[in-house]
Amino acid sequence: MSRGKLLQIKRRVQSTESLKKITKAMEMVATARVKKVERNLQNIREFLNESKRLIENVELEGNHPFLTGNGKKGLVVLSTDMGLCGAFPTEIARYALHVVEKENIDYVYAVGAKTIPYFRKYEKTRRIYDRVYDIPTFDFAQTVMHDLLEDGVGSVFVVYGKFKNKLIQKPELVKIVPLEKKTIRESRYEYEPDVEELTDSILKFFVSANIYSLAYETKVSELYARQNAMRNATENAEEVIRELTLAFNKERQASITQELIEIVAGAQALQEE
Length: 273
Prior knowledge:
Layout: H1 2-38, H2 41-56, H3 65-68, E1 72-78, H4 88-102, E2 107-111, H5 116-119, E3 125-129, H6 138-150, E4 153-163, E5 169-177, H7 195-272
Parallel strand pairs: 1-2, 1-4, 2-3
Antiparallel strand pairs: 4-5
């Protein structure tokens, strides 16, 4: 019985050591990837800031839905395609569902395979984009923007994974359009083409730039969340191995003690005979 238990513990130690190697390797991969992706994060943020400055310095006119807010309310949920990043995608999905109720959202546009369990059968889900990119692209952001316009959306909200620091990544809500009136600066410039056509182009670019930037930030958050999750898993595996090794040694010592007792008892019995 004791030998069988020793063998069982030994097998658990071996399987945990194999798991530890996997989690350690995944942590190293996530670390290497996030360093590469994070280099561009500041440039992406600056790109978004420039698009905001552009909007603030142009007189916008017309009845464009992104300007007036007329139409449906759309929520873009930026999540992940891959798992093994802790509760990060779950927190985004749950927060998005809360936003839908709070803001009376009409349509949901879910990005990432990890949103499927939450939004596949959700009555307000309009479109799901899964496994469409590894690193976010501006072309994909434009695709989402055009889908929003096609579906008659005038108010655009985004739930994304905000990168606060290497240890904290939290879901956050941003309202992109319609623009607040105070952010629109009046001017006396003459525009070519006409101001309404220019307004249409700028608003489309502005919404696309926002989706692109927030998707990129979500990607950085995802990689850090996966790095942290794999580091924690590695540390937990080390603790399990330590506890199993201790249990193995105790069981082996008990087995040796039992064998010694049996030998001594046998010797005594022979002497008595």
